[in-house]
Specification:
Blueprint: E1 13-19, E2 22-28, E3 36-45, E4 50-60, E5 69-80, E6 85-90, E7 97-106, E8 109-117, E9 121-130, E10 135-145, E11 160-164, E12 167-173, E13 181-186, E14 192-195, E15 209-212, E16 218-222, E17 226-231, E18 236-241, E19 257-260, E20 265-276, E21 279-290, E22 295-301, E23 320-322, E24 327-333, E25 345-351, E26 357-365, E27 369-378, E28 384-393, E29 400-409, E30 428-433, E31 440-445, E32 454-458, E33 464-468, E34 475-479, E35 486-494, E36 497-506
Antiparallel strand pairs: 1-2, 2-29, 3-4, 4-5, 5-6, 7-8, 8-9, 9-10, 11-12, 12-13, 13-14, 15-16, 16-17, 17-18, 19-20, 20-21, 21-22, 23-24, 24-25, 25-26, 26-30, 27-28, 28-29, 30-31, 31-34, 32-33, 32-35, 35-36
């Protein structure tokens, strides 16, 4: 399910439409690097007008589907939210070939973390920059010798970032050249101080999430079949396997997040197998877990029927955040019964500190468009900044023929300032606030989309009770204040064809 993507920046083509506090920035392939795709692995807000983001290019052997990756480039960029670049740094080292790199914000610093290679060995490389993009620290650590079996390895993949005891940790589930749980700890200056590359870490593990124990003395890593425990010096302590006769979170998929929540419990968020009335589905779940990271109190289970290609929370920071006025979640999913991941939706949700839902906003993509949201952060005013890549699939080959990066800045209420950049290319087309709805059901459509879509609201019996195609500056609102509390169905149609059907809850 991993999408390999990157992007270059030396002569970068950017398109943006910005207004108020929200913005949408699209990073395009500049066309100077043949057979390359482009995307954004990381983005963070510097101030009201500027962001920093990490751009990667993945370079392929040819332009055919499923071509072999032969190289990559990475750039660290500081730009205005309108797309104008103020500073850019090409990541390179004369003695190393850089492979995959990732970024994370840590207080007033940016940490870059990745893999490098010589003809003989693989290395871990960390760099710490201030917000002016001045290099403060660099460390290069020998990871593994290269042999014939792993000579084509592309670097460490699927990092998970978490802040434990006010320090940032990175956890990897590495494939080659190491099949163990890798942990890295940074100090208060955002510089690497500890790792377990040369330490025992037990058997191999597929990392799904990691957090700190309630007594703040151990790190616990959740895997497919059990949990691993490490002390704060990253020394491996023990491993506990799940009891096959009791429900466990072995079905909790990649990119899960656990936050301390009360006495000896955690607030947990991610993708999980759900069995209801004998039927199986994958669902977005927010719940409370015990100290063994087993969910026991489900606070929210999505009714959205997900397909096999769903990605779930942003894969590096996961999708659960504690803001100043409640909890926020970010999540991506593909509808059930989709033969290929050719269209998807993502959700931004807010809950109060008692986990009561405040609002949920769904972003609906046009058919053939797939958004992967790699990294998300919640800013100081409880706004989301989301970065990743979007892919447009060829309708005949069912293969992405157009891959670009994006940075989406949302307002504190989850609304975008726009859903499209300064042209009318295929992108997200609707944003809908679904749960809960109090007085007004509202949709936002792409700025340059002039189609007079018809929106209908039906009760659960299928009876049409409201309709409108009165769009005002790309916004359509229907008064539902007199509706009885309950679940309603809405449909969006254009040219007499159904485009989308969903549900919302009126309270």
């Amino acid at each position: 399910m991993r999408t390999i993507i990157c992007f270059v920046l030396s002569v970068l083509c950017l398109e943006v439409f910005a207004q108020n506090r929200g913005f949408y920035l699209k990073v395009k392939n500049d066309g100077l690097t043949p057979n390359a795709t482009t995307g954004v692995e990381f983005a963070t807000e510097v101030n009201e007008n500027e962001i920093i983001y990490l751009q990667n290019y993945y370079i392929y052997e040819n332009d055919q589907p499923f071509a072999k990756t032969i190289g990559n480039k990475t750039y660290l960029v500081r730009s205005n939210k309108d797309g104008n670049i103020n500073k850019e740094i090409f990541l390179q080292k004369d003695s190393l070939e850089f492979l995959l790199f990732y970024g994370v914000r840590d207080r007033d610093k940016v940490i870059l973390f990745g893999t490098g290679a010589t003809k003989d060995s693989f290395y871990i490389v960390t760099r710490t920059y201030d917000l002016e993009l001045d290099l403060l620290d660099e460390k290069i650590i020998n990871l593994s010798p290269i042999n014939e079996d792993i000579k084509d390895w592309g670097g460490l993949d699927f990092p998970l970032f978490n802040w434990l005891n006010d320090k940032i940790y990175i956890c990897f589930s590495s494939s080659n050249p190491l099949t163990k749980c890798l942990l890295f700890q940074f100090d208060e200056n955002s510089q690497l101080i500890k790792h377990n590359i040369d330490k025992n870490a037990g058997d191999g593990i597929e990392v799904k999430a990691f957090t700190i124990t309630n007594d703040n003395n151990q790190i616990v890593v959740l895997g497919t079949f059990g949990r691993k425990y490490f002390n704060l010096d990253l020394k491996f302590l023990r491993e506990e396997f799940f009891n096959p006769f009791e429900e466990s979170d072995s079905s909790f998929y990649h990119f899960g997040k656990y936050l301390p929540f009360g006495n000896e419990s955690y607030l947990a968020f991610g993708s999980k197998d759900i069995i209801e009335n004998g039927e199986h589905r994958v669902s977005r779940v927010l719940g409370v877990a015990n100290k063994r990271l087993r969910l026991y109190d489900y606070k929210y289970v999505s009714e959205f029927a997900e397909g096999d290609f769903s990605d779930g929370p942003p894969r590096y920071t996961s999708g659960l955040f504690k803001g100043t006025d409640g909890y926020y979640t970010c999540y991506e999913a593909v509808p059930q019964d989709s033969d290929l991941p050719t269209a998807n939706t993502f959700f931004i949700s807010k809950y109060d500190f008692d986990l009561n839902p405040i609002w949920e906003r769904r972003f609906i993509m046009e058919s053939g468009v797939r958004f992967f949201n790699y990294y998300a952060e919640l800013t100081s005013d409880n706004s989301f900044l989301i970065s990743g890549v979007h892919r447009i699939f060829d309708p005949i080959l069912n293969y992405p023929h157009h891959i670009e990066g994006h940075v989406i800045g949302l307002k504190p209420d989850g609304t975008p300032s726009t859903l499209s950049s300064s042209n009318s290319e295929i992108e997200a087309i609707f944003s809908v606030q679904e749960n809960p709805v109090i007085n007004t059901f509202t949709l936002i459509k792409s700025l340059n989309n002039n189609n007079p879509y018809m929106v209908n609201i039906l009760d659960v019996s299928g009876k049409n009770i409201a309709s409108s195609q009165d769009w005002n500056d790309s916004i359509l609102s229907i008064n539902v204040s007199k509706f009885t509390s309950g679940t309603y169905i809405y449909t969006i149609s254009g040219n007499k064809k159904l485009i989308y059907s969903g549900k919302f809850i009126k309270i």
